[in-house]
Amino acid sequence: MAVVGVALSDCGRVADTTPYALHAQAARRALADAGLDRSLVDGFASAGLGTLAPVEVADYLGLRPTWVDSTSVGGSTWEVMAAHAADAIAAGHANAVLLVYGSTARADIRAGRRTGTFAFGGRGPLQFEVPYGHTLVAKYAMAARRHMLRFGTTIEQLAEVAVQARANAALNPEAMFRDPVTVDDVLSGPMIADPFTKLHCCIRSDGGAAVLLAAEEYVRDCRTAPVWILGTGEHVSHASMSEWEDFTVSPAAVGGRSAFARAGVRPDEMDFAEIYDAFTYMTLVTLEDLGFCAKGEGGAFVEKGRLRVAGGELPVNTDGGGLSAQHPGMRGLFLLVEAVRQLRGEAGERQVRRADGGLPRLGVASGTGGWFCSSGTVVLGRE
């Protein structure tokens, strides 16, 4: 099965619309990108909006799907949904599946319709953590501090992740923040949760994205060249921090290994990686767990510009990522959109090139959910 259409809605500062409208805008653009009619869509996946997601969103879009998925595992939702959709298409349960997401997180806070989300509530296992002020960012910060203590990872190395994400964003006209930053800029910012200063943390934006997957028989009718899903993997590891066996190992260590094995490829064959980066530590530890470097060597790996589109050995988050491009909530679908654009050669100034000057052949998108609770990894290729 192949990805035949991808698109973003308007992103960044979008104050005059609704999340439903962003879903619709992204969906229309993805269908136009593929050149397929809406009537062919018989599968639909959405999460994060409405009381009965994806029923409400499908209804808003005028769709009546016969296959649906509302899996919600945080930022990795969309990689997991892509895996489920690929399986459904392979089994003949659907012909064309639309994945779509939209959020006005930034606009809602500005307008006073909601407050900043620092925790996921106080029910279930979380009731034992919330009373102590253990917010979402604090969980990631504690995990980062553990990695620093065990392996000698430095705050400067973590800052390099933000610096290089911003360098990639500078090449992306759709990125929300494009001005360059330095390691000193990152380190001197206001403290959010030790050791994270502001620039160690993702931005908050509005925006939406959509991805259309279709069975092979529809590929010849599409406007664009297909990008094939070669292998997927998913894993959930814990609900509370007390049940997380090792703060320095993310669930991508399991899900990523499965994805590469099912695709029949190795991490060192990837031309680029799109990695969920709500915080700088997420990028670093996911690189380790996907097998791009050994455990504990992520700090050294991210140094010397390795993650940059321009001259980097492994371009990572080529659009600027959640640290600089856009982050309207569950950003996993944006990883898939960027991966497809890179494989098609549609990324403009930020286009990744192989050593011979050719377009990339293989890429990986790896999403993370919760506080490293879940992971979904998708290996994609254009051949």
TrEMBL record:
Pfam families: Thiolase_C_1. Transmembrane segments: none annotated. Residues 233-382 form the Thiolase C-terminal domain. Gene3D superfamilies: 3.40.47.10. InterPro entries: Thiolase (IPR002155), Thiolase-like (IPR016039), Thiolase_C_2 (IPR055140). It comes from the Bacteria. GO terms for molecular function: acyltransferase activity, transferring groups other than amino-acyl groups. PANTHER family: ACETYL-COA C-ACETYLTRANSFERASE, NON-SPECIFIC LIPID-TRANSFER PROTEIN-LIKE 2. This is Thiolase C-terminal domain-containing protein.
